[in-house]
Amino acid sequence: MRDLLPNLRRDMAKATPLFLFLIALVVIFQAGTLEAQERHERPVMMDSNGSGSELYVLDASSVVHEFRVTDDGLEERGRISLSPEFIAADMTYASSGGRDLLLIAGAQAGQGVVLMYSLDGKQLKSWSLQNVCSGIDFGKATHSAYVATSDSSEIYQLDASGSESTYVTRIADATRLGPLAFDEARKEIYVADVARGRVYQYSITTKAAKVLAGELSAPTAVTFDPESRRLYIADPGRRAIFTVDTKSKNPSATPFASDSLKAPYGLALISKSRIAVADYGDSSVLVFSSKGALLFRTLLKSP
Amino acid sequence: MNLSACPGSASRRLRGIGALRFSCLLMVSILVPPFAFPQAGNPQLTLDSVNVRQDGMVTFSALPLGWENRSDFSEQRYILGQTEDGVFRLWVDIESIQQVRFNAFTFTCYVLDTRTDTKRAFKFQITGNPTGSFRDVPARVSFHVKTLAGNYGGWIRIPVYNSARTDLLLTEKQTEPAYVSVSGSTQIRIPLRNVTESLPVRVTDVAVNEDCPQCWTRISSTVSEKTPLVLSPGASGHLPIVVAANSLPALLHGALLIKTDMPHDTLSVILTYHTVPGGAEKKQAIPANIRFGPGLFGLSLALCGGIALGLTARYLLTGKLGTANETALHAILTALVLGLVAEFVGIMLMAYGNSKLVLLGLDIDPRQLFPAFILAMLVSGGSAVTSWIKQMFPKTS
Helix B296-318 crosses helix B369-392 at what angle (to 10 degrees)? Predict the structure, then answer.
């Protein structure tokens, strides 16, 4: 018994390297080896930083993909995951107070919500509205966003630096307002009626609304080019992109691009007067020239 | 303009009237869109709003797209409705049904006048706008075809959709975690039930998020867009998912969770599915509680049991626990350490080395309870026990 403790100590000292080796092995093999499966996500909506080369695409899994648009493709630079409870309807890039932001309009628990995100994925602010938000665009000069509601056909103005929403108008004829685009220079709002296949033009100055374009099936995205003063409209019902010359005395929707589109859900104007299209049906982002020629297509991959 | 005031002969006047009429017609045809009034031969189509079981409503808008020369309306691809007098047929193209954002859906349909030229049909793009909380369901929709000759009513049974309603699949609540072996692949089956009454549901994609990513080497499903899982209305089925645990992390992750109803990991199975035909893609997350087996506690018990049996057998066969001058405690501790090392090396070889462990001609997986027990018994029993077993079970081959 007297020799037991020293013997044990000696044996344990001998066994220590072995145990250390075993522990090291355990640590090494803790590393995950889960097989990665490539999947494709469906893009739902998008916007760019003005007419720049940064493109933000929200997919059906509530993830915002941040892309840099090159001459022949998209380079993914980051992702922002939104809360699964939030149902996004439209998004816009915003620049306010020297910060680059994303404003995303939608609904949460049946109530309209607009969320403000920084580009590093932090939620900075939110606005609550009584009705379900369906469209949004931002005016850089006025630091305010205009928001359409689908269940009340109203338009509100949000002050990016404040927390209040101001009632602007109600489009009386509309059935279900959807996406919205803002012409800041002329203070005009273009808002689509998804149910009736129309786009309304509302003048903030004259407080008058009129039908800008009909003959659409279900316009689900609009974007305005301030240089050419053309409005681009995505219509997945007709599987095409249309354009309207807002300078025209008799404006009408004319086809811009339809080849190879399955379900164009989103639109954005990007650098070099190119148009990016989120094709939900093809899980891809397509980029067209200003003349409507397809330049390239990029599949949207999930993490 | 006062025509009688115009100079010239009657024939000139008539020509003038003809030219005026023509220019008026031309003006009207330029200014008025083709769908504003039913022109000669151009039918107008309207679909009445439909109440869906007092849970909601669908309103429709129709966009006329013009004549198309076609009469090939097969029953596989088109749903047929007709006016009550059978004059007009309405063909809805099932393959054209498409869900769009803002909870709307569209489809293409054709109106065919059976009295006249049946080789061409007038094409419309219909947009459906649902409100309320109903689930996707076929509904009887009344429609009207208006021409200069009159107004004709009829009905058609078409599916109506509501993408706001997402709970079309139900799963049973797990009473206990699903067992996943730490060795090899295991198939877990998730029970699903299609709760729609009249439309099949097609599961087209399965994605899995795990709480412990390092615990897994493989999580996959055979269900995909090309090989979907189709559930008939009201029917139940099982979604198969093949998983393979990463042995050592899985064992360690569940080491302290001994209670058998406590999950070692929870998989969030995200299903992508839609109703057939043409329903909106919906995502539904189903949690699946997993328990790795055998657990580290079970393996430790098997190891200790094997060591105890091996030492006992050795003592019975040789009259000693260890070598000649070895104390009993030293022999027990040596057996424990060697058993542990053998088990550990065995697990590593099997899990990461793609090796086989063959003892006494038997292919042994030390990640299972009984093989772990045998391995520990042989290691602690030493050559005495091994020789005895060989004598007891001589090789027959």
Answer: 20
Establish if B129 touches chain A: CB-CB under 8 angstroms. yes
Q: Residue length, chain A?
A: 303
Residue B4 lies in a domain: no
- B397, part of any domain: no
Average pLDDT taken over every residue of chain A: 88
Q: Per-residue pLDDT for B381 more than 90?
A: no
Strand partners, A159: A144
Stretch B177-199: mean pLDDT: 88
Task: Give pLDDT, residue A20.
Answer: 65
Q: Which residues of B touch A35 (CB under 8 A)?
A: 217-220
User: What is the structure's pLDDT at B30?
Assistant: 44
Average pLDDT over residues A21-27: 58
In a domain, B59, yes or no: yes
B191 and B288 fall within a common domain: yes
Residue B55 shares a structural domain with residue B149:
yes
- pTM here is 0.76
Looking at the structure, do residues B128 and B191 belong to the same domain, yes or no? no
pLDDT of residue B11: 41
Dig out the tokens for B308 from the structure.
Answer: 């105890």
Yes or no: say if A244 and A194 are a contact pair by the CB < 8 Å rule.
Answer: no
For residues B263 and B287, is the Cβ–Cβ distance under 8 A?
A: no
Q: Is the pLDDT of residue A150 over 80?
A: yes
Q: Do residue B61 and residue A31 have CB atoms under 8 angstroms apart?
A: no
Top residue of B101, B107, B347 to mutate, by most chain A CBs within 10 Å, is B101
CATH label, A43-299, candidates 2.60.40.10, 2.120.10.30, 3.40.50.720, 3.30.420.240? 2.120.10.30
Listed in order, strand segments (DSSP E) in A226-293 are 230-235, 240-245, 254-257, 264-270, 274-279, 284-288
Q: Residues B303-318: what's their mean pLDDT?
A: 87
- Strand, coil or helix: what is A302? coil
Contacts B337 to A, Cβ<8 Å: 15, 18
Contact B213 A32 (CB under 8 A): yes
Are the beta carbons of B333 and A35 separated by less than 8 Å?
no
Percentage of chain A beyond pLDDT 70 is 87
Specify the amino acid at residue B125.
Answer: Q
Residues B117 and B196 in one domain: no
**What's the domain count of chain B?**
4
In a domain, B3, yes or no: no
Q: Is A27 on the interface with B (CB under 8 A)?
A: no
Chain B nearest C-alpha distance from A118 (Å): 25
In this prediction, residue B181 carries a pLDDT of 84
Is the pLDDT reported for residue B4 higher than 50? no
Residue B28 sits in which domain range?
A: 9-36
Q: From B109, B127, B160, give the residue that closes a domain.
A: B160
CA B237 to chain CA mean position, Å = 12
